[in-house]
Structures are given as C-alpha cells and as structure tokens.
Write a structure and sequence with these properties.
The complex is a heterodimer of chains A (247) and B (265). With 247 residues, chain A is α/β, with parallel strands linked by helices. Chain A has ten helices and ten strands. Chain A has two domains: 173 residues, P-loop containing nucleotide triphosphate hydrolases (Rossmann fold, 3-Layer(aba) Sandwich), CATH 3.40.50.300; 68 residues, no CATH class. In chain A, strands 6-7-8-3-9-10 form a six-stranded mixed sheet, with helices on both faces. The mean pLDDT of chain B is 88. The chains are: A alpha/beta (247), B mainly alpha (265). Chain B: InterPro entries: ABC-2_transporter (IPR052902), ABC2_TM (IPR013525), ABC_2_transport (IPR000412).
Chain lengths: 247, 265
C-alpha cells in the first residue's frame, strides 16, 4: 500500500490552474523527487498534501486515510521542512524544538530533542536564538524539527537550497540514513539535479500544474535523448509541449 | 482537542514574555500611564467641584475596566501577531494543531496576560489613590465575565480579519479596541451620546458594564436584567467571533493565503 496517494489533485485560483489534475503515489521507504521550474505547482502540491491549501478537487490519502477526515492522525505521522519556513527567530534552538515537540506525540521529548540537536550538529547552537543563526544553520534547525516525531512521511521543499556544498552533503547523508533506519518515505523538491539524481528513487517532472514525466532519475534523461537530468529539466521548463508529445 | 497542542502555543508566549522587557511595555507600562493620567485628573475634578457624584471612583473604575478589555483583546491579538511577525503559520498548521486548539491557546495566553496586567493595576490604584476595585462588590464578577467574553470576541475578530487581509491589517488590530471606549460610554453615561450612537452603544455588552458600574457607585445596586442582557450579548459576540475565526481559516485554506504570511507584505 502506498504511503501517499495523490489522485487527480487540482487547484484553481479563478481562471488560473496552479495544479491541474496531478496523480502520483509514494511507496513505503521510497524517495520521490518533485521537480519543475518556478511556478510549476510544486509548492502548491506540497501545501495541499499538508492541508495548508484546500484542493479545488481531487483526493489525498496517506497511510490509507483520507486527509479530509483524518487530518490530525495523518499529520501526526508526517513532518515538513522548507527553506522558506524557518522556525521563529525569537526563540532559541532548544526552545523551538521544545515548543514544536508538544505538537506531536513523542514518548521521550527530552531525548528526542537531544538526539535531534546531535544528529544535525546543533548542540553548540542550542542556546542561541534561531534568528541569529545563518540561513543554512536555520535550515538545519528546521530539518531537526521535522525529524522530532520520527515521521513515516517527510516532505522537504528545497531542503538544501541555502546550504554550502559540504553541509548539504552532510544533510543528505543524514536524511538518507534516517530513511535507511526508519523506512520512512520522502517527497523531495529541489533545483539541484545532481542532488536529485543522487538521493531520489523516482522523479516526477511537473510543468504548468501537470505531471509531464516520471521515472528513474538515472535512466530518464537517456529515454528523452538528453545528456543528464539538468538538460532534461531545461527542456521541461522551456519546451514542455515537445516532451509531452514525446511521452 | 489536545492539551499538549494548547500548551505548545502558551509555552511559546510564556518563553517570549519571560525574557523580553519590550513585551512588558504593552502589559504594564500603558495601563500604568492610563491610571496615572486619569487618576490624577479625577482627583483634580473632584477637588474642583465634582463632589456631588463620585467622579474619582467612576473614572478609575472605568480606566481599569477599559484596560481589562484592551489587554484581553491584545492578549489574543498580539500572541497571534507574534506568529505573523515570525512567519510561523506554515510550521504550525502543517502539524496536527487545529485552528480550535490554536484559538484556545491564544485565549489561555490572554488570561495570563490580563490577570497579571490588571492585578498590578489594581494594586497600583490602591497604593496611589487608595482605590479598591472591590468597591463594586458582588457586581465585579459579572462585570469581568461580560467584558472577558466580549474582549475575546474582539480578539477573534482581529485575528480573523488579519488572516483574511494579511499582515497589512496589523494597524486595524491595534485600533479596534479604541472604538469600544467612546461607543460604550466608558467615561460618560450613554444618555449624553448622540441618538444614533446610543443605538450602537446598546448593542455592545460593554455598555451594560459601564452603565452598571455607574449605577452601583450612585445607588449601590444595578438592574439585574440589564446585566443579563450584557451577558447574553457577550455570548452572542463570542459565538460570532469564534465562527468568524473558523470561517477566515477556511478562507485562508481555500485561497492559499498562508503564503502571504511568508512574505514581508
């Protein structure tokens, strides 16, 4: 059974279709990359999965439950981090983790916070106000928060966008390790095609609110006569119709 | 409704207020300034010939009760604005937290803030002017209950408006309670207001409290039926405020407005 099942999901703002009947699923333990140019509908799709935006039509089910009728049970088992969703800057790192830990059912909160600080190398910043940290450090705090409740499904919207290559590599390793040890699934958006090729089991290319291509990030470029994922991405962004016909 | 979720909202405010002197300005500084200005003015008026009615007691009483409305509304609205300023809604509402739990968290925070603020104000009024808030006797409790429910309702309307309009509605949040004082006759009887404003005044629960306070000071009692009208109105306002906050949240989800709170606009 799929951990996440999205069926004919659509979001319209007046005459604009931000998401146009998207369907996909994420299997247990799978990392799926959601790719597409700016404005393609990735963040709107993630927001609908999180319940931050109400779909115009379509269905989101997670862990076999309909989101509309099981919102709290579902959100209890998942978590989210994004570069644009930093935790409040006026609380220190430990306070932020403490406050957010109470929004989830966590058996040993203190230990969960200690583990999160350690995993993301944040112990020395524990007493520092989050707003005083660099953008990359704040992103790490956000990801640490996202793992507090040991989610079965993790939604990451450009999680390494503000990180230097070395830190980004460390974060990727830790997230992959988390997937390996917990069996969690991850829906991952990024504009870094090398990263996507490295971490994702499967990718979905979105353009104009529709899923255009889907497949293994390592095999997909050759299938469409492209050199690598980046070249394929540029084609999706510039000539979506050509690719749609080719598909 | 999960207690843990509500605790999380309150905990954040407790941490913020515990260590920030700036936040105490709203809680203590302005109420104290109000008390000093109106307390001293009322003593002056009393000495200048206002002895025939107890101007001192009713002005200080009005200041304390008006501050009760103001601080309760701000207890809800400022805690909410903290999440606007820190762009925290995406983090909060992508968790199992519900809008109902969030609203209750704001109310609990408001209770702490207003309890502290009004408690200190009453002590200061006693120390500076030997004014005893218990001069209203039995009536104090219904007065506070009516004002509390009404102020929470105003707080909920402020939150609902900001959710719909976005961070630019902040000015409105600060100014909404200011209109309550002149409309509900906090400093004067409703009978001196222009005719059409009197009709508006009678639709506000706070009017019955301020009229009641003057009645208690003048005669030692107050028509219980009027208290019940004030209480019924405050329950209606609270129900409307609660409905409005849920409606606004639904609008935010439908129109995808949470992204608006991730920008500086």
């Amino acid at each position: 059974m799929a951990i996440l099942q999205v069926s004919n999901l659509e979001k319209r703002y007046g005459n604009v279709r931000a998401v146009d009947g998207i369907s996909f699923s994420v299997a247990p333990g799978e990392i799926v990359g959601l790719l597409g140019p700016n404005g393609a509908g990735k963040t709107t799709t993630i927001d609908m999965i999180l319940g931050l935006v109400e779909p115009t039509s379509g269905l989101v089910t997670m862990f076999g439950m309909d989101f509309r009728s099981h919102r709290s049970e579902i959100l209890e088992q998942m978590n989210f981090a994004a570069t644009y969703a930093h935790l409040p800057g006026n609380l220190n790192v430990r306070e932020n983790l403490h406050v957010f830990s109470h929004l989830y059912t966590i058996n040993n909160r203190k230990q969960a916070i200690v583990d999160a600080l350690k995993t993301f190398d944040l112990e020395r910043f524990a007493g520092t106000r989050t707003g005083f940290l660099s953008s990359g450090e704040q992103t790490r705090v956000g990801i640490a928060k996202a793992l507090l409740n040991k989610p079965r499904l993790l939604l990451l919207d450009e999680p390494t966008a503000s990180l230097d290559p070395s830190t980004a590599d460390e974060i990727r390793k830790r997230l992959l390790e988390y997937r390996r040890t917990s069996g969690a699934s991850i829906l991952w958006t990024s504009h870094d095609m090398i990263e996507i090729a490295r971490v994702c089991d499967r990718v979905l290319f979105i353009s104009h609110g529709k899923v255009l291509l889907e497949g293994d990030p390592r095999g997909l470029p050759a299938k469409y006569g492209k050199h690598d994922l980046e070249e394929l991405f540029i084609s999706v962004a510039r000539e979506p119709l050509t690719l749609e016909l080719a598909a | 409704m999960k207690i843990n979720h509500i605790y999380s909202i309150v905990l954040r405010q407790v941490i913020l207020n515990k260590r920030s002197w700036g936040r105490w300005t709203g809680i203590l500084y302005w109420p104290t300034i109000d008390l000093l200005v109106w307390g001293t003015l009322s003593i002056y008026i009393q000495k200048a010939g206002g002895q025939e009615f107890n101007v001192f007691v009713f002005l200080i009483g009005s200041v304390i009760l008006m501050n009760f409305i103001w601080r309760t509304q701000q207890g809800v609205a400022v805690s909410f604005l903290e999440d606007v300023w820190t762009r925290n809604f995406v983090n909060l509402f992508s968790s199992p937290l519900t809008i109902g739990e969030y609203s209750v968290g704001l109310v609990v925070t408001a209770i702490f803030r207003v309890g502290f603020s009004i408690g200190i104000l009453c002590i200061l009024a006693w120390l500076l002017y030997t004014f005893n808030i218990f001069v209203f006797g039995f009536y104090l409790m219904p007065f506070l209950a009516i004002l509390f429910l009404f102020s929470i309702a105003i707080g909920f309307f402020s939150v609902g408006i900001t959710l719909r309009i976005g961070p630019s509605a902040e000015a409105l949040v600060w100014s909404i309670p200011a209109i309550i004082s002149p409309l509900s006759g906090a400093m004067y009887p409703v009978s001196v207001l222009p005719g059409f404003i009197q009709k508006i005044a009678l639709a506000l629960p706070s009017t019955y409290v301020f009229e009641g306070m003057r009645g208690v000071i003048a005669t030692g009692s107050y028509d219980h039926r009027l208290l019940w009208i004030g209480f019924a109105l405050s329950v209606v306002y609270l129900a409307l405020g609660t409905w409005y906050i849920f409606l606004s949240y639904r609008t935010v989800l439908r129109r995808g407005l949470f992204s608006r709170f991730s920008t500086t606009d």
